[in-house]
Amino acid sequence: MDCHTPLILPSLLAADFANVASEVKRAEAAGAKWLHLDVMDGNFVDNISFGPAMVQAVRKHTEMFLDVHLMIHRPDHYLERFVKAGANNISIHVEAEYDTDVEATLKRIRHAGVQAGLVLNPATPFEAAKPYLGMIDLLLIMTVVPGFGGQAFMEAEAMPKLLEAKKYRDSHNLRYHLEVDGGIYVNTAPIAKRHGANLFVCGTSAYGPADMKAAMEGLAAAVS
User: Fold this and answer.
1) Which end of the chain lies in a sparser environment, N or C, as judged by fewer CB atoms within 10 Å?
2) What is the pLDDT of residues 93-111, one digit of tens each?
3) What phi and psi, each to the nearest 5 degrees, are found at residue 168?
4) Whole-model pTM above 0.90?
């Protein structure tokens, strides 16, 4: 899939954790090709979600592409555990604390045969990502403050940065996907697409409705 193809990614954070296997299958049956998994440590963000064991459990029930977003400090310390668990892409935050550094961690992700992503929080300028853009497959622009689902889409803070990332990619002949996460619904996804996004992480808007397939189709139509 190229960096211009739009794709809706259900976020497991919004699923029913008491029925993970069936929730993974529900996303697959609804047409999902990628599944987004938010890993939170209660330190880098003020919430705790799950770790490598959940990624491994999900992998047992699907062949979907697992897009693992590490909202944690010291992602370099935990990296191998997520690789072993079955992640297809691992995204790390430029703002996190590292035993080594961002560059070394991205290189290790790629060396492990996994796609590498970099994440910017709403308050972090695009400039912070520039040294690493030739090393990544995906740039995630957070459209809410990370940690909790159900927040409002931060258009004013995130969209200029997203557009800047698109212009930089195109002018430098790079190929990274542009992903958005937070407050993505049928009314906000098209805004993100106009500013360059092609990957749309949808938590409540995908898993919330009883008819997930119809919800996914509606979201896909909004960015088609």
Assistant:
1) C
2) 999 999 999 999 999 999 9
3) -65, -45
4) yes
